[in-house]
Amino acid sequence: MAASNSTSFLLSFLISLLLFASMQLFRTQLASNQPMTIIGGFIGSLVFISLLTAVSNFEMNTFGPGYQARIIPEVITCLFIAMICCGLVHRVCVTTCIIFSLIALYYINRISSSIYGNAGVPATGYATQNLLSNKKKQK
């Protein structure tokens, strides 16, 4: 059974805080060698995903169930916060966080498109005219 928007907001926000706290707690271990900095960047991308989930669920709870997270305010803000969290650990964590976060964002978008359809593409007059002219040609 799926959780409601408010429950999912609360859980994902708590997960992001827990991940941030664990990154700060194990800062010296994450910055000790190269594989650990890559793991730190991966944990930072998990912070990004959980923050994006929290923000999206908060907006869906506030503005209605049809509201979608957009790239400019929500995604970039959550990515910036995750980069700051990684920057407090190590510089390389920021780079790997960006890479892992963009890969995760691609797959999240792909899954969302397959489940909810491609509702984000607005219909233009040109596309409507082409559809009408193709229907006329078929008759």
TrEMBL record:
Keywords: Membrane, Signal, Transmembrane, Transmembrane helix
A Pfam family reported for this protein in Swiss-Prot or TrEMBL: Keratin_assoc
Coiled coil: none
Membrane association type: Multi-pass membrane protein
Recorded superkingdom: Eukaryota
Localisation per UniProt entry: Membrane
Principal cellular location given in the protein's record: membrane
InterPro entries recorded: KRTCAP2 (IPR018614)
Signal peptide feature range: 1-25
Keyword Transmembrane: yes
GO cellular component, one term: membrane
TM annotation in the entry: 38-58, 79-108
Family: Belongs to the KRTCAP2 family.
Listed name of the protein: Dolichyl-diphosphooligosaccharide--protein glycosyltransferase subunit KCP2
Native source species: Adineta steineri
